[in-house]
Design a protein that fits this description.
This protein has one domain: Rossmann fold (3-Layer(aba) Sandwich). The protein has twelve helices and six strands. A six-stranded mixed β-sheet has the order 3-2-1-4-6-5, sandwiched between helices. It is globular.
Length: 224
């Protein structure tokens, strides 16, 4: 596979299957990955892993994306939540949280595979993002047949991603447009501050699930 060719990975995947499950977050890499898959595969579904269900800025983008492409995006709790509940992070521990069974990211993805009947997963990781991803994506050339995982934009520079979004009139989620990345971690002060300012009702919803989340903002104000 010529890794330098911008569409080499997705064309190689199209030779193996006509169906794909796309992981979406609302960020720039995931919106490009989804659009590419919609243009190359007959059967496409999406999945979205949430930290708190029902946040308006996420739901609005998810619904708009489903309407645009005529697909279903399956919402599932993020596997990290099992660790958060067991550790009592930003919420009280209890006997119930101690009994929460740990779930890995692979197990969470396999559940979506099983419920949709789609085996191949495509996600938006890029080699330039970190040394770890560089090693992983270089080793499989963007297509891991054993794990049935594909990374269509693995070797794209960020400039190419941005150009694709502009040329195809794609929309990232509101949190991604505001923060430069999608909201997905409770411990991020910048993300929580932005949500409290721009979507106060969503911040209250986060507090319902994580009553001590304001400690993140208090720590940031104290330490800087």
């Amino acid at each position: 596979m010529d890794r330098k060719a911008p569409f080499a990975v997705i064309r190689a995947l199209a030779e193996l299957t006509d169906s794909v499950l796309v992981g979406v977050s609302g960020g720039k890499d995931s919106v490009v990955t989804l659009d590419l898959c919609m243009n190359h595969f007959a059967h496409v579904a999406g999945y979205f892993f949430y930290i708190v269900p029902g946040l308006s800025f996420q739901d609005e983008w998810l619904h708009a994306t489903e309407r645009r492409y005529g697909i279903t995006i399956h919402r599932r709790p993020h596997s990290l939540l099992t660790q958060v509940y067991r550790a009592g992070m930003y919420r009280p521990k209890s006997f119930a949280t101690d009994r929460v069974e740990p779930i890995t990211a692979t197990e969470a993805e396999n559940e979506v595979r099983s419920s949709t009947g789609l085996d191949w997963i495509a996600t938006g990781e890029r080699r330039a993002e970190s040394l770890q991803r560089c090693g992983m994506l270089s080793a499989c050339s963007g297509l891991d047949a054993k794990r049935k995982r594909a990374y269509p934009i693995a070797f794209w520079p960020v400039e190419a991603v941005r150009r694709y979004i502009k040329w195809h009139n794609l929309q990232v989620s509101a949190d991604s447009a505001l923060l430069g990345r999608s909201f997905g971690e409770i411990g991020q002060p910048a993300g929580l501050k932005a949500i409290a300012e721009h979507w106060p009702d969503d911040f209250l919803r986060i507090k319902e699930h994580f009553p001590h989340v304001e400690a993140v903002l208090a720590r940031e104000r104290f330490y800087g």
